[in-house]
Amino acid sequence: MVTTETSPRHQAGLFDIRNVIGLLLGIYGLILLLMGLFADKGLDKTGGVNANLWAGLALLVVGIIFVVWARLRPMLVPEGAAAEGRGH
User: Fold this and answer.
1) Dihedrals φ, ψ of 78, to 5°?
2) Cα 8 to the chain's mean position, in Å?
3) Which of 9, 21, 48, 52 is 20 to 30 A off residue 70, Cα-Cα?
4) What 3-state class would DSSP assign to 83?
5) Quick one: pLDDT at residue 63?
6) CB crowding 19-29: b at 16 or more within 10 Å, else e
7) CA dihedral of residues 25, 31, 37, 38 (deg, nearest 10)
């Protein structure tokens, strides 16, 4: 049996950029979705399409994809990476 020694690693967690992007897209998507449902739809300006509703749904879906991606494939950071970045 062959084993390889690797440096210990931990997950980036909340600081993973995919979580930040997914959260921001989700917040903007929720705002647009609510505006599309409850505000003036402005259908005459968009050719009969509720643009806020559809853009909000699309942003929510993409935001959820980013968060799920970050959960399923977490970034692994070597233990010594933080110390190296500070010059120690």
Assistant:
1) -60, 145
2) 26
3) 52
4) helix
5) 97
6) bebbeebbeeb
7) 180
- What is the rounded distance in angstroms from the CA atom of residue 35 to the CA atom of residue 15? 30
Say what the pTM is.
Answer: 0.73
Distance, CA of 51 to CA of 54 (rounded, Å)? 5
The pLDDT mean for the chain works out to 84
Nearest Cα to Cα of residue 79 among 4, 5, 8: 8
Element (H, E) at 85: helix 81-85
Side-chain half-sphere of 57: how many Cα atoms within 13 Å?
A: 6
DSSP string for 36-52:
HHHS---TTTTTS--HH
Residue pLDDT, tens place only, 15-33: 789 999 999 999 999 999 9
